[in-house]
Specification:
This protein is of the alpha/beta class. The protein has five helices and five strands, in the order E-H-E-H-E-H-E-H-E-H. Helix content is about 40%, strand content about 15%. The relative contact order is 0.14.
């Protein structure tokens, strides 16, 4: 298990099967990921509407109030390059409804192979972290301060 870092990107996990969602969130946290959990599409959209926008979205496809593709489209309206992972028992339906998502969502079929999902998320998070590091302007260490010059003499008023 890797130690958690404050800089670790945030994963928003969305799944209406509460037991599965909590188990998956716990496994991801045990593997060092930062995870926020919502249990339906409407709650996910509400969470996405407030800052900070998560760095990765992992969503179930079939959910009440809004499906995973609707959640993904809303997320991409906020952040067009947001990495998307869809967990589903209906991969062909996700492929058909998810057309137009660029880049495409990564689809994992249920039951989810946790080792494959975790590895894919780790690769994605590393890519997000390295992009963020490259985007940060480098701050040069300040040079020495100039030597103080003579103080100006007071002028009579």
């Amino acid at each position: 298990m890797e130690p958690r870092s404050i800089e670790q990107p945030l994963i928003l996990l969305v799944d209406d099967d509460i037991r599965t969602a909590r188990l998956l969130a716990r496994l991801l946290e045990d593997d060092g990921f930062r995870v926020e959990l919502t249990t339906d599409g409407a709650l996910a959209i509400a969470r996405l509407a407030r800052a900070p926008v998560p760095d990765v979205l992992v969503t179930d496809f079939r959910m009440p109030h809004a499906d995973g593709v609707a959640v993904a489209r809303f997320a991409r309206s906020l952040r067009p390059d947001l990495p998307l992972f869809v967990l589903t028992g209906y991969p062909e339906l996700v492929a058909r409804l998810g057309r137009g998502l660029d880049p495409e969502a990564v689809v994992h079929t249920k039951p989810v192979d946790y080792a494959a999902l975790s590895a894919a998320l780790r690769s994605c998070v590393e890519a997000v972290s390295s992009r963020a590091a490259r985007a940060q302007p480098s701050v040069a260490a300040p040079g020495p301060l100039p030597a103080p010059g003579p103080l100006p003499s007071p002028t009579p008023a």
